[in-house]
Design brief:
31% of the residues lie in helices and 26% in strands. It is of the alpha+beta class. The chain has a single domain, classed as Beta Barrel (Lipocalin), CATH 2.40.128. Strands 1-2-3-4-5-6-7-8 form an eight-stranded antiparallel barrel.
């Protein structure tokens, strides 16, 4: 549950309604189908990819980077090292340290608007859907990025945003990786090393770790 002091910060700094927090209540929704499970593993047919609306990512979200920095994710890296064997837990931690790195500690998404919070500073913009791109990685696995664009000239929020959450069709996101920039969508699609990752804001550290270990 969200601590009262934490909740007060959210309600005091975000323009989102209390319903937005309730909407973001942690829920995996209906179980994944066999096809969705395969897609989450990077195996799917291009024809099965569907458009998605920004509502799939609505809610209030926390970055996992601070959790990595204070050692809360160490059990996750230890499990990866045991299962994978290609890296030690320390090596996995360094890999994810680069991947998770971000100064945006909190994100709020509601009614087509995204708010980016960096400490006590924030920026916001309404984002228009710009389609999706299917990527094939060096491993041979595939992924989909959903593209959005801020067209408000005076906004200091990122002009281009891309979401990746291992899902290829309409479904509420349980966590996601986000890519942001001001150059172009094409330039952003080349980013493969830094993918800031967000989980529902109301989850405490132990719950985020549990999600990473078991989902």
């Amino acid at each position: 549950m969200v601590q009262v002091t934490k909740l007060a910060v959210v309600l005091g700094t975000l323009c989102f309604s209390y319903q937005a927090l309730a909407h973001g209540h942690h829920d995996h929704g209906k179980p994944l189908t066999a096809a969705e499970t395969q897609a989450a593993a990077g195996v799917f047919a291009d024809k099965d990819v569907k458009d998605r609306a920004l509502t799939d990512w609505e809610g209030v979200w926390q970055s996992v980077y601070p959790l990595l920095q204070k050692g809360a994710l160490d059990p996750v890296f230890e499990k990866k090292a045991k299962q994978d064997g290609s890296k030690t837990a320390a090596e996995f931690k360094e890999y994810y340290r680069k991947g998770y790195a971000t100064d945006v500690d909190m994100l709020g998404i509601e009614n087509g608007v995204m708010e980016f919070h960096r400490g006590d500073k924030s920026s916001a913009c309404r984002y228009d859907y710009a389609g999706y791109k299917i990527l094939t990685y060096a491993s041979g696995k595939k992924g989909v990025r959903y593209l959005f664009e801020c067209k408000e000239a005076n906004s200091s929020a990122p002009k281009y945003v891309q979401f990746s959450d291992h899902t290829i069709g309409p479904r509420k996101s349980a966590h996601f990786h986000i890519f942001t920039g001001n150059t172009s969508q094409e330039a952003l699609l080349k980013e493969m090393d830094n993918w800031p990752t967000y989980y529902p804001y109301q989850l405490n550290d132990a719950q985020v770790v549990d999600e990473m270990l078991h989902h």
